[in-house]
Every structure is written in C-alpha cells, then in structure tokens.
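Two proteins were folded this term; both appear here.
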Amino acid sequence: MDVVKKFGRILLPLITVFDEGQKVDYKTTREVARYVVEKGYCDSVIVSGTTGEFYAMSIDERIRLFEEIKDELKDEIPLIAGTGSVFLKDVIEMNKMAEKLGYDAAMVVVPYYCHPNQEEIYRHFVEVAKNTSLPVMVYNIPLFVGVNLLPETLGRLAEIDNIVAVKDEAGVNPLQATGFIKKTGGKLVVYSGDDTMVLQVLTQGGVGVVSGGAHVVGDIIREMIDAYLSGRVDEATNKYLILADLYAAFFGPNGERENPTPLVKAAFEIVSGLPTSMPRSPLLPATSEEKEHLKKVLERMGKLPAG
C-alpha cells in the first residue's frame, strides 16, 4: 500500500482526557479529536498512543476509546489504533476490536519493561501481524521500552506483507532511520516519533512525523514539512527553530520533566480552552510556573493574543 498517500505525513497521537477523579473523560476527548481535525493539524489520528497515556489505561478503557473516537470522526480521517501491550493476547484482542470498528491500521509498540531480545521482538511482531488483517506500524521507543529495535530485525519484519511502517524515537538513535531504510530496502516507511527530529529524519528518507506537539502547532509542522519537501530548506529550518522553543518547554522551564505529556496537555488546554491538562497518576499536572512558561512561548509563536 502507499502508506504516505493513505496516512499522510502528520500523524497525531491523540491525548486522552482525564477528569479530576482520574476517570477517562470520553466526551472531552471526542472534542479534542474534533478540534484537531477541524484545525487541519494532522493527516491521521492515533488513538491510545503514548501521548494518549495508553500505559495507564485498562484494555476496556482503550477499547471504549476506540469506539468513541470512531463514532466521533467516522471516516473523515484515517484512524490508527494504538494496540501495544507487553501481553501478546491483549494486542491481538485490541487489534480484532479495531478491525471490527473499521480502523485503518494498528500501531504496536515493542514490548516494554520485560527487555526482550531481538528474536523475541521479531516473534512478537510475527504473531501480531499473523493475527490481524490491519496494516501494522511498528513503534520503536527505546527511551521508554528500554530496548532498541535494530535495523536488522526490522529488515526481517519487512518481509511480512502487513507490516508497513515504523515509528522511531529518533532522538535516541538519530541516524537509525538510515539503517531502517537500508535494511528494509525501502519496503517500510519511516516516521519520526520525536517532534524535534522531523527534518533530520526527512533528510534520511523518512516520510513524516508522529507528533504530540501537533495538537498545538500542527499548522507550523505542516508548513515546515511542505517547505522542506519543496526545496525551501532555509524556510523549513526557520520553522524548525520556531518550534524548538515549544518542544523544549514541554519538558519544563528547567528541563525537569522526563515525560512531556502533561505539558503537551497543558499547552493544548491553554490554546483550545478545553479542560485537558490532567494526566493520569503517577504523572502530575503542570505547575503554575510551567503553565506561565508555556504561555510565554505560545504567545511568542503567535498562538495566543499578545499580553
């Protein structure tokens, strides 16, 4: 399949909204999905990805989320189900539900916490692919998983027809996109899984980004990618430098955050007015200092009225 034609260049991992009692707020999550689609901030929406805090949700909650977002967006935009789990049976179950609901693909993270070796990773994805008719995007995020998917392993997986793409946390291994492309013979497309590395991955032959930041700056990301692909490299670089301040702010004024999701959610709340800033425990919501820092950066970017 032509993955770029089907899913585009900006894939947005939708935030999941939690209320003050830590319950999933499905209604507001639907409003978030509607907002980003109407703004044109993405080409596809990923439901229950890392930015959606899938790791802190039950299987039932994730499946309900698949149902709610499909009901909200229907066929307006391609939908990708984040179905990764350390337990293969859960991945297969969620993929079957995603198929039933009419999702367009599944994104499956390398099994986390258990530190699988390369053969174990390979066999996991073989079983995932064998048990679904959906196209599969392999999600490599060694920063959180603790293990890196090697290009040689992805090359073996590229022989499986319905494994079609890889999302790579390129900030950890900045040249790995080249290895992925060479070892797969171009059979799989590469998306940057790191907002800060989009241009670097494009220069290696990648096709786009899975971007949490797109909730707020999907328009600028699109301008940057379009400029680069049109040969206007200086313009693309200038857009990148504008975005860099916000990406840094997602980790706090002093870089004290390990996980940027709470501040991505806070930034979205500041810009959209929707009550989205509460993450699920153990993550903590943005502090007043962090929110003020975000506001200043967003104002400089033209995302908020001056003053």
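Next, the second protein.
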Amino acid sequence: MTPRVGWGFDAHRFAPQGRVLMAGVVVEGGRGVAATSDGDVPAHAVADALLGAAALGDLGALYPSDDPSWEGADSMALLADVVARVAAAGFRVASVDLTVIAERVRVAPHREAIRAALAAVLGAAAGSVSVKATTTDGMGFLGADEGLAAVAVAVLEG
C-alpha cells in the first residue's frame, strides 16, 4: 500500500499559571497554556497529523473543546487513542517530524525525552521521531512570547 502523509498544526496562548507540556514532558513551570485539555501543543499537532494521514477527521471533531468532559484531559492519552484509531483503520506510524515554534521556551534540553515519549505512544522507534524547534525572531504572537505552536508531519504505512 502507498504511504499516507498527514500534516498537523496547533497553537495556544500562554496562561499566567500552570506548566508547559511537550509530549507529556514538563518543559517549563510557572506559566501554563490556555486550553481545554492539558494544552500539550506538540501532542495535538502530532495527533492531527496522524488523523489527517489516515483521513479520520481532526482533533476538534473527536474531542471538541466545547465539551466539558475534555477539561484537563491528558493529551498523551488522547494521542494514544488516535494511534489506536489509526491502527484500527489498518495503518501504522512509519515516522513523525515535529517542529515546535516558540520564542523563549527551550526544547533542546528536553528533546530526547520528548522523542522517547512520542515514540512510546506511537509504537515507533525513537529514530523514526524527529523533534526540532525554531523561533519567529520576534515576529507575531509567537515572537512576542504570548504562546507557542507546533507543526507535525506523519507518515503512515498500511
């Protein structure tokens, strides 16, 4: 079967309290992310990339933010559910490429932990998961350090 490719994106503004999670890894404390769930932006981007590759809809359709039952939801558990849906549709994750976009949040000290956490949930080898970071050099809401974003590409085999 031909490989399937999906693209995912997520962005959230920062909140005055809480913590910043990336694939379940705490990368910053003292401020959080405004979200219905735990606000794990990278996990959301990867989940949407997987759903897109499998043509299974999107995160908002499956776990709507206006549904109070998702308040504080563990985004890595949601990602695990997405992986199960993808598997039920006859696909497996071949690779994921994730880029986090943030001005001051540092990914590098946590890169290997993020890769390992994603690989474990995806059922993929860590070498099949890429985690990168960039800034917008001060431009826009990301550059003003008002929030963070992530983009992901997923390749599925079936």
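The first strand starts at residue 4 and ends at 15. The chain has one domain: 4-157. These notes refer to the second protein only.
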